[in-house]
């Protein structure tokens, strides 16, 4: 029993999100990014503590602009989002995993 109690802080301390990890709030998805990167790409990073155990300047960045500022980054599984509004996804313009792409609206 003592071993498991001592191991808990080690497991918790390894829970830091990394730059580019997905994060979410109320069904909206973003990636953990520096506040300077998010601001320079007109993203929204007003909500704190969505990227656990990271420094204060790493926050969840929602809908940064991409594709020469003609689109915004979002998860491809966002039903009612990009494709529902007549847009399409472009790869290679957003940070994060393969399912986080640039929505370019037509």
Overview of this structure, please?
The protein is an alpha+beta fold and 106 residues long. It has one domain (17-105). Helix content is 17%, strand content 31%. The protein contains two helices and seven strands; from the N terminus they run αββαβββββ. It has helices at residues 2-13, 35-40; strands spanning 22-25, 28-34, 58-62, 65-66, 71-75, 87-90, 100-105. The strands form two sheets. A four-stranded antiparallel sheet has the order 4-5-7-6, with no helix packed on it. A hairpin with a 2-residue loop joins strand 1 (22-25) and strand 2 (28-34). Residues 1-13 have low confidence and may be disordered. Residues 1-17 form the signal peptide. Keywords: Signal.
Major sheet size, sense and barrel closure: 4 strands, antiparallel
Mean pLDDT: 86
Query: What is the assembly state of the chains in this entry?
Result: single chain
Query: What overall form do the CA principal axes indicate?
Result: globular
Unreliable segments (pLDDT under 50, ≥5 consecutive)?
1-13
Roughly how many Å apart are the termini?
59 Å
Using only CA atoms, what is the Rg? 16 Å
